[in-house]
């Protein structure tokens, strides 16, 4: 039996800015985790990852990150993803400054 | 101080132009990330959690006022107005944009600064005693040798693709303030019948398999230094394990072969190549020694200093922690703490950098140093200038009197920035510094070092108390080690037992400090001395004492 797929978002870093980006349901790259598409199906997630790996001119290091469904949109499934979605905890820099 | 020659400037300009073209090719899509990554790393450019990070070398920790101002300008213009000084005597800018990095490198080059070999499997930034050229206990200034090593290792064709990264540290003093035994090669100046040379240790390193370096030779004549270092690198380059990055450092070679076999291989190589060194290195070293000639020290009375110490308890307290003995009469070495209680260890704002540059110009022969302990040093200040200097530092929030105390913590960037981290370091350091601030003079000499992953950039193995942040089933967890030592009595700390959740670190350290204060043989017995006298058992017992026991006690 194959392992159950962990719900995930597709994420990467923007090539120019280095900032964290997510794939949204319309296949656009957005900056906010809660606007990301939450993949619950392994095959769809793998196809999206393949597509992202073909976008070398746009992004770096695409991967599937665990996420949790919530009414306001996907939430981080691991504390590392929480920092990526928000920014560092010592200064109000990064995404939290733009919110 | 060393000033760049025309050759250096041309070399850097060429290198920066190459990198600019590489960035353009990456942006145009001509280079894939896999092709571009090794090129950017060779030029100090990482991609971290939130952004790119540019790591700029501060060779052997020495900066001029002009260079410090340049770092401030770069921080203001292309970053977020601050920089992070690291345990490798580098500065990291956490928020550059890829398109701007070539301009940043050109700006840095104007001041004789670069990011070459701050990453990759090559000889990294050569680090040194941050009191070099000033310390009272020093045999000689090691920086001419360090600069010789920098020039020799920069773009050295044989050593650009080593099995793994390679770190060299050097001290000119029998006291080791550069953690030399935790480096791939550690060079500690010693004398034999009045002649200076080096004790050479090899195979030290921290990370997932930590080792204290072993002595390869107790005395190497200074004249043989460069050919001998080349022989070590050559022997390592031939043997080093390229099949497994976790076994690729020279420390693993030393463990696998034994230090005697490594010595035999190095000696064979040394004997084969020694004759090829015809003395050009010696001529260059002589020129470098002239460049590092000490400044013209004044002979003035220190009355103003003595008066201020008498009359100003804040000043006196600062002089007791932040000054170290200077080789010249009437002078002191000033350490400016970048560890204000609650601040991020090693961070300096552009404004603070400019203040420090100005103060070095006014009072310290325009010289600054960055320590691996993430502080800034003004190495040559006449004591009569200290009251005025202290007043300026106070006005800028730079007069924290905590050097060597519990709040003078080394911490890596951890998961707040680093893509490799498994937990955060910075908030742990902030919490400890604030929590113990009121008791830190009572607690006395203490080295706490925090890493946010097993790679140990925060030197946790060498802390009297080491803290290692890990990911335990999706939760930050902190392992504690005790008894590490970064000095000439180098030792690795021993793990105490299970780790602590983030919010349990402070209570655990509280129990540890209470135990120490109860067990010490008076205020003059430091934590590390008490630990050595009594062993780890009573401290472990305190750490893992259950809450009920604590309440009952």
From TrEMBL, chain A:
Pfam families reported in the protein's UniProt record = DUF2849
Q: Could you name the domain of life of the organism this protein comes from? A: Bacteria
Region of interest: Disordered: 74-99
Question: Which InterPro entries does the record associate with it?
Answer: DUF2849
What name goes with this protein? Sulfite reductase
Automatic annotation (TrEMBL), chain B:
Q: Which UniProt keywords apply?
A: 4Fe-4S, Heme, Iron, Iron-sulfur, Metal-binding, Oxidoreductase
Xref: Gene3D superfamilies? Sulfite Reductase Hemoprotein, domain 1, Sulfite Reductase Hemoprotein,Domain 2
Coiled-coil spans in chain? none
Enumerate the spans annotated as Nitrite/sulphite reductase 4Fe-4S domain: 119-271, 409-546
What EC number(s) are associated with this protein in UniProt?
Answer: 1.8.7.1
Going by the record, the broad EC class of this enzyme is oxidoreductase
Annotated InterPro entries? NIR_SIR_4Fe-4S (IPR051329), NiRdtase/SiRdtase_haem-b_fer (IPR005117), Nit/Sulf_reduc_fer-like_dom_sf (IPR036136), NO2/SO3_Rdtase_4Fe4S_dom (IPR006067), NO2/SO3_Rdtase_4Fe4S_sf (IPR045854)
Q: Is Glycoprotein among this UniProt entry's keywords?
A: no
Nitrite/Sulfite reductase ferredoxin-like domain mapped to chain residues? 52-111, 330-395
Taxonomic superkingdom = Bacteria
Q: Which GO terms describe its molecular function?
A: 4 iron, 4 sulfur cluster binding; heme binding; metal ion binding; sulfite reductase (ferredoxin) activity
**Protein name, per record:** Sulfite reductase [ferredoxin]
Q: Which organism is it from?
A: Roseinatronobacter ekhonensis
């Amino acid at each position: 039996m194959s392992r159950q797929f962990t719900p995930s978002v597709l994420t990467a870093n923007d090539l120019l800015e280095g900032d964290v980006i997510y794939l949204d349901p319309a296949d656009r790259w957005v900056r906010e985790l809660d606007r990301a598409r939450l993949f619950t199906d392994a095959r769809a997630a793998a196809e999206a990852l393949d597509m992202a790996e073909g976008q070398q001119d746009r992004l770096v290091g695409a991967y599937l990150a665990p996420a949790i469904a919530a009414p306001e949109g996907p939430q981080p499934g691991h504390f590392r993803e929480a920092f990526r979605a928000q920014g560092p905890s010592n200064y109000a820099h990064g995404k939290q400054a733009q919110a | 101080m060393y000033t760049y020659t025309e050759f250096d400037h041309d070399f850097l300009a060429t290198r920066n132009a190459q990198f600019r073209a590489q960035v353009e090719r990456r942006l145009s899509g001509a280079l894939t990330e896999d092709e571009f990554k090794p090129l950017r790393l060779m030029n100090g450019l990482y991609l971290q959690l939130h952004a790119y990070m540019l790591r700029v070398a501060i060779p052997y920790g020495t900066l001029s006022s002009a260079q410090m101002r340049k770092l401030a300008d770069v921080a203001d213009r292309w970053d977020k107005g601050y920089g992070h000084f690291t345990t490798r005597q580098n500065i990291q800018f956490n928020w550059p944009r890829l398109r701007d990095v070539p301009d940043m490198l050109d700006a840095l080059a104007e001041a004789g600064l670069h990011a070459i070999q701050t990453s990759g499997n090559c000889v990294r930034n050569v680090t040194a005693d941050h009191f070099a050229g000033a310390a009272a206990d020093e045999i000689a200034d090691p920086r001419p040798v360090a600069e010789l090593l920098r020039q020799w290792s920069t773009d050295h064709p044989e050593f650009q693709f080593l099995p793994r990264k390679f770190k060299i540290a050097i001290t000119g003093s029998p006291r080791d303030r550069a953690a030399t035994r935790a480096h791939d090669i550690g060079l500690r100046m010693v004398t034999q019948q009045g002649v200076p040379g080096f004790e050479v240790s090899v195979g030290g390193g921290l990370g997932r398999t930590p080792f204290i370096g072993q002595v390869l030779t107790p005395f190497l004549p200074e004249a043989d230094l460069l050919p001998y270092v080349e022989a070590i690198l050559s022997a390592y380059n031939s043997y080093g394990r390229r099949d497994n990055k976790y076994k690729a450092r020279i420390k693993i070679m030393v463990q696998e072969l034994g230090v005697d076999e490594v010595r035999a291989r190095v000696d064979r190589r040394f004997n084969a190549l020694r004759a090829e060194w015809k003395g050009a290195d010696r001529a260059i070293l002589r020129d470098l020694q002239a460049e590092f000639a000490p400044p013209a020290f004044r002979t003035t009375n220190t009355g103003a200093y003595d008066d201020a110490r008498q009359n100003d308890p804040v000043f006196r307290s600062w002089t007791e922690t932040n000054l170290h003995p200077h080789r010249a009469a009437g002078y002191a070495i000033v350490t400016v703490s970048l560890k204000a209680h609650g601040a991020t260890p090693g961070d300096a704002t552009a404004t603070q950098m400019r203040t420090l540059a100005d103060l070095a110009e006014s009072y310290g022969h325009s010289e600054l140093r960055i320590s691996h302990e993430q502080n800034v040093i003004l190495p040559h200040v006449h004591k009569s200038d200290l009251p005025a200097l202290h007043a300026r530092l106070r006005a800028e929030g730079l007069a924290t009197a905590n050097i060597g105390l519990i709040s003078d913590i080394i911490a890596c960037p951890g998961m707040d920035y680093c893509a490799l981290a498994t937990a955060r370091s910075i908030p742990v350091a902030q919490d400890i510094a604030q929590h113990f601030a009121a008791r830190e003079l009572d607690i006395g000499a203490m080295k706490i070092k925090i890493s946010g992953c097993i790679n140990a950039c925060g030197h946790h193995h060498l802390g009297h108390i080491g803290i290692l942040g890990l990911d335990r089933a999706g939760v930050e967890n902190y392992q504690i080690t005790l008894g590490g030592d970064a000095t000439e009595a180098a030792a690795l700390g021993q793990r105490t037992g299970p780790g602590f959740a983030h919010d349990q670190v402070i209570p655990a350290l509280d129990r540890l400090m209470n135990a120490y204060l109860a067990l010490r043989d008076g205020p003059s017995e430091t934590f590390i001395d008490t630990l050595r006298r009594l062993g780890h058992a009573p401290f472990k017992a305190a750490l893992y004492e259950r809450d009920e026991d604590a309440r009952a006690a």
